[in-house]
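Q: Could you fold this chain for me?
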Amino acid sequence: MVLMFWILLAAAIVFLAAAVAIWFWLHPVRELVAVLEDVGPAESPLVGWFTEAAEWMPFVVLLSIVVLLVAGAIYNRSSAYGGI
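A: Sure. Below is the predicted structure, expressed as structure tokens.
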């Protein structure tokens, strides 16, 4: 039971750290994308990739929250029936 708590805590920390790291990474990248769009003679393939990454981030965060909620529900149900 204690092990499951630590697993859930580690998963929550990893998901939070990943979201923060992606946010800090995308902040300067948005400026780079603007420069690539303005200066480049043709649209770089990186511009599309960076824009798609920025668009998908909220869905990744929501999916992470759903995974944590499901893991918490499984933990709660298993602890009600004698633990894992």
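A (continued): The longest helix spans residues 2-39.
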